[in-house]
Amino acid sequence: MRYMGLLQTYKEYLPVTDNTPMLTLHEGNTPLVRAEKLSDELNLDIYFKYEGLNPTGSFKDRGMVMAVAKAMEEGSRTIMCASTGNTSAAAAAYAARGNLNCIVLIPNNNIALGKLAQAIIYGAKVIAIEGNFDRALEIVREITAKHPITLVNSVNPYRLEGQKTAAFEVCDQLGQAPDYLAIPVGNAGNISAYWKGFKEYNAKGKSSSLPVMIGFEAEGAMAIVKGEPILNPETVATAIRIGNPASWDLAVNAAKESGGQINYVTDDEILHAYRTIASKEGIFAEPASAASIAGVMKLHKEGYFKGGEKVVCVLTGHGLKDPNIAIKSVGGDLLVVQDTEEAVMDAIRKLEGA
Ligand code: F0G
User: Cβ neighbours of residue 74 under 8 Å, at least 6 residues apart?
Assistant: First the structure.
């Protein structure tokens, strides 16, 4: 049967009524790809939930299709969000699809190029503020409380409802929940949504077990790890450059209830994992996504795993979102040579020797 998107596929599990428009860009149904080399190297059974293959290139499409469909059902004309980039791309796309206006607030100079391009081309009104994501979210909350505009950040409960479907897919793809679910943590909505999804699927008898949830913040933005908000968060992984996560308590609860933890990884660890999964596994995910695999590498080094466990790493966004980081992190200028066979052969030898 033709796949018709999340609202259709999971309507019994979602707040879908007879009046909910069946909005879709055929989001969800993303592959679970086994990490062949890393599994051998770390003596684990590692899988990537490749969320970069959603319609706008990130997991945000799952929550946004639900939130925008409900906004339409409720007669809203305009949606608004703060974003480090992916939420705004998803909001802009689904607003275009559903004929709504979309306003997005982004931190100036701190969103990846691809994400900015998406918000603009989908036709959102894009406003960059001289402040960070946390400040942008405060402003969006203030404005949407006073005006007839629907807030579509993950504090909108429909967002987490949509996002929990990724946990359902992981269980169906593996036949049951994995032993561990490793995930980057920014505003802390996604880890909360996955945990909700795993618990609901387990309660319905669709998976016999629950995973241990292990979430990873970036070191320069590790508010939950430190136990206090961070005023000026900094990390190469701009998607999770967040100092005061909105779903803080839910994320702590997911870690606690599942016997897991919220930990952190450094920018160097993130970039190492980012390059490794691209060059060894053929999977290109954005830096924030690589926090999940960087975290598994770190815990492995510390002797956290017994060996042989099934670990699913959520790769939240596509690598093409942030082409500048890819080029910068590998380094070196492009080799330009004359258009002759000898020049190209010389260049090949030079690169092989490098
Ligand atoms: N990975 C990517 C690629 C993201 O874009 C985000 C969040 C996260 C991980 C963290 O997920 O916030 O649910 O803990 N991006 C948001 C945005 C903040 O505006 O696009 P979270």
Answer: 150
Q: In terms of Cα–Cα distance, which of 15, 84, 96 is closest to 289?
A: 84
Q: The pTM is what?
A: 0.97
pLDDT per position as a tens digit, 223-280: 999 999 999 999 999 999 999 999 999 999 999 999 999 999 999 999 999 999 999 9
Question: Confidence class of residue 333 from pLDDT cuts 50, 70 and 90?
Answer: confident
For 190, the 3-state DSSP assignment is: helix
- State in Å: Cα 283 to ligand 1 middle: 19
Identify the residue whose tokens are 């998803």: 90
Q: Identify the three-state secondary structure at position 214.
A: strand
Atom of ligand 1 nearest to the CA of 83: 19
Pocket-testing residue among 60, 61, 106, 111, ligand 1, by greatest number of atoms within 8 A of Cβ: 60
Residue among 244, 216, 245 at smallest CA distance from 232:
244
Residue 182 three-state SS: strand
CA 86 / ligand 1 centre spacing (Å): 7
Q: Describe the strand order of the beta sheet including 78-82 as a list of residue ranges.
A: 125-129, 101-107, 78-82, 150-151
Q: Is 187 annotated as a binding residue?
A: yes
Note the pLDDT of residue 330: 85
Q: Which two tokens stand for residue 320?
A: 């093409």
With a cut of 0.90, is the ipTM above it? yes
